[in-house]
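During the reporting period, we have paired protein sequences with backbone structure tokens. One record among many follows, to show the layout:
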Amino acid sequence: MTIRESIEQREEQFLSPYAALSSRSRGRQRPEEPCDIRPVYQRDRDRIIHCKSFRRLKQKTQVFLAAEGDHYRTRLTHTLEVSQIARTIAKALRLNEDLVEAIALGHDLGHTPFGHTGEKVLNEVCPLGFAHNEQSVRIVELLEKKGKGLNLTWETRDGILNHQMSSAPATLEGQIVRLCDKIAYINHDIDDAIRGKVLKEEDIPKKYKDVLGYTVRERLNRMIHDIVENSLDKPYVTMTKEVEEAMKDLRRFMYEHVYTNPIAKGEEDKAKNMLHQLYTYYREHLDQLPEEYLELMDRGEQTDRVVCDYIAGMTDHYAINRFVELFVPQAWNI
């Protein structure tokens, strides 16, 4: 018996009957020989961590531009916080921690530079539309490894695609990540907003804090415990109605007072104009795209989608540098 087989056997013995077992995965798009050490979801996790798109998350905006301070969250630190919270819940519920981690680490691979601002711009300018969750799946299925993709399991791809609240993941592990994405960003965005003097703890309405807690730590603890206590040994992952409603109301409060705050979003119009011009430029100058994107078009991929692929893959710094090179006059070297 291989190490992988012994791990799969332990999953069958100790995980919840509602867990997604590694040995029962629906498989990959392209069949592969199994690893002798790692079950399939561990391999998914490892492939995501080692891919280029994952590394680029360190220089993509969460809410506050990374250039404004060293301690604000980036898209990468958000991803790691989602993973940590999700793994805690998965372990408590005896669900598949490896699958949860793979979904969490891959859920935002498709995010644009400058956070949701970039996503809105690409959705507006691209005739085919743009959504970061769909782009995350496109990355792991096609764009990584020079057009070969990462060949992840069906369960991981389903969780990545359906991590938004309006979606319905097929596995309980995907349901965990769907909730933990919101738990993580609501709480760390409050922390960053307080750090950036956009918000004070006392600004948060008491009716939300009475339910969820009076500090970031208390709120995280309350939400995590609520999910565990109400989902243990059940075929679904859920919160109590009271906690879920308070979380949604707090999220609305954050949209009104932080996500649209002039201080937090002061550079948003500049970012919008910059990405709009970059998209227009590359759409009109396809020969300026890197070779791997030209190859995608040669393989039949639609031009507008490939231009989106290139812009969405940029980090904040790279997008700024490309804009300067293309549109800002440079001094003559004499």
